[in-house]
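thought: fold this chain, then report.
action: predict
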Amino acid sequence: MTALFSTQYWLLAQVLQELKREGSTSKLGASAPLCSYPVSAEERSKVRDLLWEESLSSAFAPRCVAIVRYVREHGASALAHFPHPLSPVSVEQRNAIDSALRSPIKRTYMQYLSERFDAVFDDKVEPEEPQLSLNRKEQRQLIRALADIRSMMYFRERSKSGPVKSHASA
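observation:
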């Protein structure tokens, strides 16, 4: 389960939000404001069930966050050292990211997602969503493309390397 929450960072962000909300409710009597993460209602419900009905260890979320921070610092290849090594980014994921990187608008939106990812795990204010000419379907596709930390790290590597010309370089 640690591997799932350490790679699917919006699920981990939801766990962290639920823990903060629970902490603020018990201290102040009111819930902390909720952020909207790209997590389905079903996934959100499963996260709540795991937290409150299954009583996860208090070390679970900090351990997952530590893994995410380590991967951010050392790259997705660090996941190969898990007890159950995780496969690298698939060819399909790389192609989808490379294709999106060719569009300045999609690149901008993916950069926003990357900055939002960092803000969540650095406990900072999330950036404002850019006003772009992307419809909701295109936004969801980009969110899905970068939903896994391995694909997020691939995006960061590729965006630093300059313009993406073809799938052959993936």
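thought: worth noting. The chain is about 60% helix and 0% strand.
final: tokens above.
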